[in-house]
Amino acid sequence: xxxxxxxxxxxxxxxxxxxxxxxxxVRPRLIAALGRQPYNGLYSLIALATFMPxxxxxxxxxxxxxxxxxxxxxxxxxxxxWILMFAAFIFLVAGLINPNPGAxxxxxRGQVRGILKVTRHPTFVAxxxxxxxxxxxxxWLGDVIFFGSFALLAILGGFHQDRRKLREIGxxxxxxMAQTSFFPGTALVRGRQRWSADDVPWAAIAxxxxxxIVVLILHPRLFGGYPLG
Length: 229
Fold this sequence. Notes:
The protein is mainly alpha-helical. It folds into 2 domains: 1-61; 62-223, no CATH class. It has helices spanning 3-21, 27-34, 36-60, 75-97, 122-137, 141-169, 171-179, 186-189, 202-223. Helix 1 runs parallel beside helix 6 (141-169) and helix 6 packs across helix 7 (171-179). The two termini are 25 Å apart.
């Protein structure tokens, strides 16, 4: 099995096991058989057991396969890449501060504020932006499969979680979906939400600036070559 095929195998296992184990067909049965906490532990264990081999295989076979595109020398694309990473850090930190309330099993009414007015899945959006930023700088087939798996997991994971929460929570989550959007900014553009000064995630923006600076400094030292390369 060549390097690209190995990356594709582990990427498929990484994405597939996430979606299958959390599906409405498998998840309730595992929780009924094991209990909620053991199920969470099993989910984390399987995620780690597929992610680590994927990471190791990619680490040993970075830039494997045919080059599909090469945008590294295109200055506007490099700027776009860093803008996307800056945004990813903001969404990630803002999602930790103000997560999707449905993901926590919390009461949903009155919970739409801050980053949730932009997207109800800030963490998934952060992962997708991270993936797209790295795809721009890494056009080799193996890299596209590796980073593309994160984009795929983020997009499918968000829609998958919405469907599951609709079944589990019902009408309150349906109301949350009606008031918010998965794609960033859609609810604001369509008038379902109004942005105010109180919604600005200043802590997340400050963290995004700090993390971007740290990555700019450390990325070439840790991974070599171009930043994000």
